[in-house]
Design a protein that fits this description.
Helices cover about 35% and strands about 40% of the residues. It is α+β, with helices and mostly antiparallel strands. It is globular and about 55 Å long.
């Protein structure tokens, strides 16, 4: 029963993160992660405190995205856990002056730690599995630069394209649905989980 309670607690933590992030509830968002936590996504890699600052700056410019979360699988080893959560990210932006939507599907991959009796996320990364780009107006003609599109892995190339066109710098080496980057990433996480 205790194992189930712990897993439900971690699942709620992951669900809460997405909601607080999307509605801009920064104080509650901070409480989902440890003070020294880190965050890695297409457009950001660094401390979670820095991530919130970057989000707030983005919000002031009117940027918004939405995260929809699905099932969460939790593996616990003592005071450490790995939580994997199916998710999709919806981002609206503009290309060629036309509004477009990017839908990115993948999973949150969280290293979670119980410190002083409380579970919080210690490190969040995203595994990007597939994405697509659609014009909001289906009749709008959007021309994509094939060379820029091909610079990024298939799992998140449209998201990276939109973020790059908006002036962002995107990491081209993140884990996707398969391949060496994913294998190394999962190996490192499992090593962390079982070394406590």
């Amino acid at each position: 029963m205790q194992d189930l309670i712990e897993k439900l607690t971690i699942t709620e933590l992951v669900q809460s993160w997405a909601m607080y992030r999307d509605i801009g509830d920064w104080e509650r968002l901070r409480r989902t992660m440890h003070d020294d936590a880190s965050m890695t996504a297409t457009w950001y890699d660094g401390s979670f405190a820095g991530f919130i600052e970057a989000l707030q700056a983005s919000w002031r410019k009117g940027s918004r995205s939405q995260h929809f979360v699905g099932s969460t699988v939790v593996e616990i080893q003592g005071a450490r856990a790995i939580a994997q959560t199916r998710m999709s990210i919806l981002v609206r932006g503009k290309l060629d002056g036309q509004p477009v939507d990017v839908t990115s599907v993948g999973r949150f991959f969280d290293r979670v730690e119980k410190r002083q009796g409380t579970w919080r996320i210690a490190k969040r990364c995203v595994i990007y599995e597939k994405d697509r780009l659609d014009a909001v107006n289906p009749q709008a003609a959007i021309q994509l630069d094939p060379a820029l599109l091909e610079k990024f892995p298939e799992g998140y190339r449209h998201l990276a394209y939109l973020q790059t066109q908006a002036g962002g710098e995107v990491n081209p080496n993140l884990p996707t649905a398969s391949g060496p980057a994913l294998e190394q990433f999962v190996f490192q996480a499992q090593t962390w989980l079982h070394t406590s």
